[in-house]
Amino acid sequence: MKMYRINKQLLIGLSPNNNLVKEYKNSLTNLSTEQWDSSIGLILGDASLQTQNEGKTYRIKFEWSDKDKAYVNHVYALFDEWVISEPHKQTRISPKGNTIINWGFQTISHQAFKPLAELFINNNTNKKSVKDSLIKNHLTERGLAYWFMDDGGKLDYNKNSKNKSIVLNTHSFTELEVINMANELKDCFNFSTEVRTNKGKKIIVIKPESYLLFRSKIDNYIIQEMLRKLP
Protein backbone atom coordinates (compact mmCIF):
# COMPACT_ATOMS: atom_id res chain seq x y z
CA MET A 1 0.00 0.00 0.00
CA LYS A 2 2.93 2.34 0.66
CA MET A 3 2.01 5.05 -1.88
CA TYR A 4 2.72 8.06 0.33
CA ARG A 5 5.28 10.55 -1.03
CA ILE A 6 5.84 12.85 1.94
CA ASN A 7 8.92 11.93 3.98
CA LYS A 8 7.62 10.85 7.40
CA GLN A 9 10.71 12.27 9.09
CA LEU A 10 9.48 15.76 8.19
CA LEU A 11 6.34 15.18 10.27
CA ILE A 12 8.00 14.31 13.58
CA GLY A 13 7.08 16.85 16.25
CA LEU A 14 4.54 18.68 14.11
CA SER A 15 1.04 19.42 15.35
CA PRO A 16 -1.78 17.16 14.06
CA ASN A 17 -3.27 20.36 12.64
CA ASN A 18 -0.18 21.14 10.59
CA ASN A 19 -1.00 21.26 6.87
CA LEU A 20 1.82 18.85 5.99
CA VAL A 21 0.49 16.34 8.53
CA LYS A 22 -3.02 16.74 7.16
CA GLU A 23 -1.76 16.23 3.62
CA TYR A 24 0.06 13.09 4.67
CA LYS A 25 -3.01 11.66 6.42
CA ASN A 26 -5.16 12.43 3.40
CA SER A 27 -2.78 10.42 1.25
CA LEU A 28 -3.71 7.33 3.26
CA THR A 29 -7.01 5.56 2.72
CA ASN A 30 -7.59 2.04 4.03
CA LEU A 31 -5.63 -0.65 5.80
CA SER A 32 -4.21 -3.36 3.59
CA THR A 33 -5.68 -6.86 3.95
CA GLU A 34 -2.55 -7.92 5.82
CA GLN A 35 -2.81 -4.96 8.21
CA TRP A 36 -6.53 -5.52 8.79
CA ASP A 37 -6.19 -9.25 9.50
CA SER A 38 -3.23 -8.64 11.80
CA SER A 39 -5.10 -5.85 13.62
CA ILE A 40 -7.90 -8.24 14.58
CA GLY A 41 -5.40 -10.54 16.29
CA LEU A 42 -3.41 -7.69 17.84
CA ILE A 43 -6.52 -6.09 19.38
CA LEU A 44 -7.70 -9.46 20.66
CA GLY A 45 -4.29 -9.36 22.34
CA ASP A 46 -2.88 -6.32 24.15
CA ALA A 47 -3.25 -3.56 21.56
CA SER A 48 -5.76 -0.83 22.38
CA LEU A 49 -7.91 1.50 20.31
CA GLN A 50 -8.06 5.16 21.30
CA THR A 51 -9.99 8.20 20.13
CA GLN A 52 -9.35 11.85 20.87
CA ASN A 53 -12.35 13.30 19.04
CA GLU A 54 -15.36 11.34 20.31
CA GLY A 55 -15.05 8.54 17.78
CA LYS A 56 -14.48 10.45 14.55
CA THR A 57 -11.06 8.84 14.18
CA TYR A 58 -9.10 6.19 16.09
CA ARG A 59 -5.52 5.09 16.56
CA ILE A 60 -3.98 1.80 17.73
CA LYS A 61 -1.56 1.84 20.64
CA PHE A 62 1.01 -0.94 21.07
CA GLU A 63 3.31 -1.84 23.95
CA TRP A 64 5.50 -4.90 24.64
CA SER A 65 8.31 -5.94 26.93
CA ASP A 66 11.99 -5.61 26.05
CA LYS A 67 12.30 -9.36 25.38
CA ASP A 68 9.82 -8.91 22.50
CA LYS A 69 11.81 -6.14 20.78
CA ALA A 70 12.04 -8.13 17.53
CA TYR A 71 8.24 -8.43 17.52
CA VAL A 72 7.95 -4.69 18.23
CA ASN A 73 10.07 -3.95 15.16
CA HIS A 74 8.08 -6.42 13.07
CA VAL A 75 4.71 -4.84 13.90
CA TYR A 76 6.17 -1.36 13.48
CA ALA A 77 7.29 -2.29 9.96
CA LEU A 78 3.91 -3.85 9.23
CA PHE A 79 2.13 -0.56 10.00
CA ASP A 80 4.93 1.59 8.57
CA GLU A 81 2.87 4.20 6.74
CA TRP A 82 0.50 4.60 9.70
CA VAL A 83 3.25 5.32 12.25
CA ILE A 84 5.29 8.51 12.30
CA SER A 85 7.51 8.10 15.37
CA GLU A 86 9.69 5.05 15.97
CA PRO A 87 9.09 2.75 18.98
CA HIS A 88 10.10 4.46 22.20
CA LYS A 89 11.68 2.90 25.26
CA GLN A 90 9.86 3.10 28.60
CA THR A 91 11.66 2.27 31.84
CA ARG A 92 10.13 1.86 35.27
CA ILE A 93 10.98 0.27 38.60
CA SER A 94 8.73 -2.54 39.83
CA PRO A 95 7.49 -2.70 43.46
CA LYS A 96 10.22 -5.29 44.05
CA GLY A 97 12.87 -2.91 42.79
CA ASN A 98 13.44 -4.52 39.41
CA THR A 99 13.97 -2.45 36.28
CA ILE A 100 11.16 -3.02 33.75
CA ILE A 101 11.73 -2.02 30.13
CA ASN A 102 8.90 -1.78 27.62
CA TRP A 103 8.72 -0.56 24.04
CA GLY A 104 5.69 1.22 22.62
CA PHE A 105 4.39 3.15 19.66
CA GLN A 106 1.06 4.23 18.22
CA THR A 107 -0.43 4.82 14.82
CA ILE A 108 -1.73 8.16 13.66
CA SER A 109 -5.40 8.85 14.29
CA HIS A 110 -7.33 8.10 11.13
CA GLN A 111 -10.77 7.07 9.88
CA ALA A 112 -9.24 3.85 8.57
CA PHE A 113 -9.21 2.49 12.13
CA LYS A 114 -12.86 3.33 12.80
CA PRO A 115 -14.20 -0.01 11.44
CA LEU A 116 -12.00 -1.77 14.00
CA ALA A 117 -13.50 0.37 16.74
CA GLU A 118 -16.98 -0.56 15.55
CA LEU A 119 -16.02 -4.20 16.06
CA PHE A 120 -14.23 -3.87 19.38
CA ILE A 121 -15.42 -0.84 21.33
CA ASN A 122 -18.46 -1.19 23.59
CA ASN A 123 -20.51 1.95 23.05
CA ASN A 124 -21.87 1.86 26.61
CA THR A 125 -18.52 1.58 28.38
CA ASN A 126 -16.10 2.81 25.69
CA LYS A 127 -13.92 -0.18 26.60
CA LYS A 128 -12.60 -3.01 24.46
CA SER A 129 -14.98 -5.92 24.09
CA VAL A 130 -15.61 -8.86 21.78
CA LYS A 131 -19.00 -9.03 20.16
CA ASP A 132 -20.67 -12.29 19.19
CA SER A 133 -19.42 -13.68 15.85
CA LEU A 134 -16.34 -11.45 15.77
CA ILE A 135 -14.08 -14.51 15.73
CA LYS A 136 -16.34 -16.28 13.26
CA ASN A 137 -16.58 -13.39 10.81
CA HIS A 138 -13.23 -11.63 11.11
CA LEU A 139 -10.44 -13.80 12.54
CA THR A 140 -8.23 -15.28 9.83
CA GLU A 141 -5.27 -17.61 10.21
CA ARG A 142 -2.98 -14.57 10.03
CA GLY A 143 -5.01 -12.87 12.75
CA LEU A 144 -4.83 -16.02 14.88
CA ALA A 145 -1.03 -15.99 14.58
CA TYR A 146 -0.83 -12.37 15.73
CA TRP A 147 -3.22 -13.04 18.60
CA PHE A 148 -0.94 -15.84 19.74
CA MET A 149 2.27 -13.85 19.29
CA ASP A 150 0.73 -10.92 21.14
CA ASP A 151 -0.97 -12.59 24.08
CA GLY A 152 -0.56 -16.34 23.81
CA GLY A 153 1.83 -18.96 25.07
CA LYS A 154 2.18 -22.48 26.37
CA LEU A 155 0.14 -23.74 29.28
CA ASP A 156 3.08 -25.38 31.02
CA TYR A 157 6.42 -23.52 31.13
CA ASN A 158 8.18 -26.35 32.95
CA LYS A 159 11.36 -26.93 30.97
CA ASN A 160 10.82 -30.69 30.74
CA SER A 161 7.08 -30.53 30.11
CA LYS A 162 5.65 -32.44 27.17
CA ASN A 163 2.30 -30.66 27.45
CA LYS A 164 1.30 -29.22 24.05
CA SER A 165 -1.58 -27.07 25.30
CA ILE A 166 -1.78 -23.48 24.01
CA VAL A 167 -3.09 -20.58 26.13
CA LEU A 168 -4.70 -17.37 24.88
CA ASN A 169 -4.61 -14.88 27.74
CA THR A 170 -8.03 -13.26 27.63
CA HIS A 171 -7.96 -11.68 31.10
CA SER A 172 -9.28 -8.32 29.89
CA PHE A 173 -12.55 -9.76 28.59
CA THR A 174 -15.69 -10.85 30.42
CA GLU A 175 -16.41 -14.48 31.19
CA LEU A 176 -19.23 -14.60 28.65
CA GLU A 177 -17.01 -13.07 25.95
CA VAL A 178 -14.29 -15.64 26.64
CA ILE A 179 -16.75 -18.53 26.52
CA ASN A 180 -18.11 -17.28 23.21
CA MET A 181 -14.61 -16.86 21.78
CA ALA A 182 -13.64 -20.39 22.81
CA ASN A 183 -16.75 -21.79 21.14
CA GLU A 184 -16.17 -19.79 17.95
CA LEU A 185 -12.54 -20.96 17.80
CA LYS A 186 -13.87 -24.49 18.02
CA ASP A 187 -16.42 -23.89 15.27
CA CYS A 188 -14.16 -21.91 12.91
CA PHE A 189 -10.86 -23.78 13.23
CA ASN A 190 -12.02 -27.13 14.61
CA PHE A 191 -9.85 -26.68 17.71
CA SER A 192 -10.60 -28.57 20.90
CA THR A 193 -10.86 -25.76 23.48
CA GLU A 194 -11.74 -25.18 27.10
CA VAL A 195 -12.08 -22.18 29.38
CA ARG A 196 -10.06 -22.08 32.59
CA THR A 197 -9.59 -19.60 35.42
CA ASN A 198 -6.28 -17.81 35.89
CA LYS A 199 -5.73 -15.01 38.41
CA GLY A 200 -9.49 -14.76 38.85
CA LYS A 201 -10.12 -14.25 35.13
CA LYS A 202 -11.06 -16.59 32.28
CA ILE A 203 -8.55 -17.75 29.68
CA ILE A 204 -8.81 -19.97 26.61
CA VAL A 205 -6.88 -23.23 26.40
CA ILE A 206 -6.41 -24.99 23.06
CA LYS A 207 -5.99 -28.61 24.05
CA PRO A 208 -2.92 -30.68 23.09
CA GLU A 209 -4.83 -32.83 20.61
CA SER A 210 -5.27 -29.65 18.51
CA TYR A 211 -1.61 -28.58 18.66
CA LEU A 212 -0.61 -29.78 15.20
CA LEU A 213 -3.77 -28.26 13.72
CA PHE A 214 -3.01 -24.99 15.50
CA ARG A 215 0.53 -25.00 14.11
CA SER A 216 -0.78 -25.61 10.59
CA LYS A 217 -2.87 -22.45 10.89
CA ILE A 218 -0.18 -20.09 12.22
CA ASP A 219 3.15 -21.34 10.90
CA ASN A 220 3.02 -19.23 7.72
CA TYR A 221 2.74 -16.04 9.80
CA ILE A 222 4.60 -16.46 13.09
CA ILE A 223 8.02 -14.81 13.14
CA GLN A 224 11.13 -16.73 14.10
CA GLU A 225 11.71 -14.85 17.35
CA MET A 226 8.25 -15.76 18.69
CA LEU A 227 8.59 -19.51 18.22
CA ARG A 228 9.89 -19.62 21.81
CA LYS A 229 6.29 -19.12 22.99
CA LEU A 230 5.26 -22.47 21.54
CA PRO A 231 5.47 -25.77 23.44
TrEMBL record:
Residues annotated as transmembrane: none
GO molecular function (one): endonuclease activity
Alphabetical list of Gene3D superfamilies matching this protein: Homing endonucleases (3.10.28.10)
The Homing endonuclease LAGLIDADG domain, residue ranges: 40-211
Source organism (scientific name): Scleroderma citrinum Foug A
Pfam families to which the protein is assigned, alphabetical: LAGLIDADG_2 (PF03161)
GO biological process, one term: Group II intron splicing
Protein name: Homing endonuclease LAGLIDADG domain-containing protein
SUPFAM superfamilies in UniProt: Homing endonucleases (SSF55608)
Function: Mitochondrial DNA endonuclease involved in intron homing.
